[in-house]
Amino acid sequence: MQSLSKIFLGLAALCLIGALGVLLFGAGLAATGIFVVGFLVALAIGGMGHAKIKPHVFTIWVLASVIVALYFPQYFLNVGDFQLTGLIKWLIMIIMFGMGTSMSLQDFAGVAKMPKGIFVGLVCQFTIMPLVGLTLAKTFGFEAEIAAGIVLIGSVSGGVASNVMAYIAKANLALSITMTAVSTVVAPLMTPLLMQLLANQFIAIDFVAMMISVAQIVLLPIALGLLVNKLLAERADLLHKVMPLLSMGAIVVVLAIIVAAGREDLLIIGPLLFFAAILHNAIGYVLGYWGCRMLGMNEQDSRTISLEVGMQNGGLATALAAEMGKAATVGLAPAIFGPWMNVSGSALANWWRGKPAEGAEAQSEVESPEEASI
């Protein structure tokens, strides 16, 4: 494994040199495509056998999917007469099913054990991010459908990636898992409601249709995942190894489709939208953390809720944009937010890991969550 890892890392270095060589000879940025994509793919494969790179392999795959779609969008638009955006809903449902297989009813029982944390977390989750999203959309003056996408990414539930980051940060993993579970269950009501209240000024929002869509995309596959997890309890180890890989693969494909579909708009507004995503994410972390501290919550719980607030379910937002028939516009903000969320969340979690909070030693008693990001 080590020797294979070294071969791919060497190939990554050659691809990087090739990209730099193309630029030096004046061939232009467009000509570097095959080398840049090759660098990221080889780095991701080789990184699996490298201790320092391995924790970031999924993020590298995400970046690779975005880059390949920008350079070669024609491969992610359609197959014959079939538009690939039609796959987004089903791929997200696979991800939600994977989330369900990693959960149990005990995750919801945590509400009774940590009522204050769950209540404060949910209030922060469904106020800070949607309102910050609306503020940024208006401040930057994005066109209507792009602005609606920023509000959308702020109005969805938290993602499973926050559970992984909470574990790394030595935060309250039990609170993180329960918050993700509960916010996901209430999303069919809260997300359409917030979109109706905040995004209706940008595009027409059908509250009932969106509520049904969220229930189909989220609740049904998660319920099925919970059932499968219970029925296949004796094979849980295999299930928990396979589903995260399927989920991560689905995320990579979804991002490529979204970026390819919205490539022209993304090339024009990409830098500004990326800056808005950085601000949105950072403000979510800051307000989530300090809001909890001001309410007298301990350091460990405050870190947990900060991560839960800042890291949204980009997959759900992407699927809803596709359901609205606006994957190339409304779906751009989730496509930008998703990759950045993993980078920023990982950086914040590792920084906090070096500053253990009081009570964090109890973290070792909790099993690490499966590596996933949605």
Uncertain parts: 362-374
**Count of domain modules:** 1
Task: Give me the strand/helix succession.
Answer: HHHEEHHHHHHHHHHHHH
CATH architecture: Up-down Bundle
β content, as a range? under 5%
Q: What spatial order of strands do you see in the largest sheet?
A: 1-2
Helix content: over 70%
Briefly characterize the structure.
The chain is an all-alpha fold and 374 residues long. The chain is 73% helix and 1% strand.
Q: How does this structure look, described?
A:
It is a single chain. By secondary structure, the chain is mainly α. The chain has a single domain, classed as Na+/H+ antiporter like fold, CATH 1.20.1530. Helix content is 73%, strand content 1%. It contains 16 helices and two strands. The chain has a two-stranded antiparallel ribbon with strand order 1-2. A hairpin with a 2-residue loop joins strand 1 and strand 2. Helix 4 packs antiparallel against helix 15, helix 8 packs antiparallel against helix 10 and helix 9 packs parallel to helix 16. The longest helix has 32 residues. The protein is globular, with a radius of gyration of 20 Å. The C terminus is likely disordered.
Characteristics of this structure?
single chain; 374 residues; Na+/H+ antiporter like fold; two-stranded antiparallel ribbon; 16 helices; disordered C terminus
